[in-house]
Amino acid sequence: MSRTKNIAHRLPSVTMVLALAASGASWAGEVEEAIAKRLSESLPALGRVTVEPSQAPGLYKVVSEQKELIYTTEDGQFFFSGELLQLTDDGLVNLSESARADIRVASLAELGQEGIIRFQADGEEKAQINVFTDIDCGYCRKLHSEVPQLNALGITVNYYAFPRSGPNTPSFAKYESVWCADDQQASMDAAKLGQGVASASCANPVLEQYRLGRQLGVTGTPAIVLEDGNMIRGYVPAEQLAKGLGLSGVAQ
After folding, report:
1. What is the rounded CA–CA span in Å between residue 119 and residue 113?
2. What is the pTM of this model?
3. Average pLDDT of span 207-234
4. How many structural domains compose the chain?
């Protein structure tokens, strides 16, 4: 037998390699399905869950229907909620916060942009920010006073409702009136200045957006969600915000 034939005889066939790869993928899927089944049976409050491997060997990342993030072992017997950190050459990396950023991007995409109140960038749009806002919040009003500056810098501002006082409160009703106004932007401008807003009612997304904000970890306003899903908690001056977004032409 020639040397070439001998080597070929010892190598696995392409068919065998593909079969082994498919078997591994199937096994991995089975693990995730088993974890989801066990959690849904034992903890029905989690609702429908998604499961996928985390960056840590042996740990799986679970996202509940309410956008909660937990981690579990392969057998679904041990789990924890909290921060999963990785020590790298550049220091500690918060893997949990990266996962939450992905959840925010997916959740906002799923909600869609139909219900937002948008202040469009002037000319070429260079970035978008998604702001969970309360009309009566002082720092939200300060941020809104800089929206024209943000727009001039090429930043579109998308407002999502987050009246901190919650449903069935004057602040909540005020946001509903702004959303139901014929000119949402003008009504928002007036409301942010503390001027009276004509009472209006209609089918609106205020409650849905408020609930989503709570699920995504909004605890105060303004809460600024960037396009990559990272969240800035609180007011940031327009120039500083634009600089943080890496926009050119911003004063250094």
Report:
1. 12
2. 0.81
3. 96
4. 2
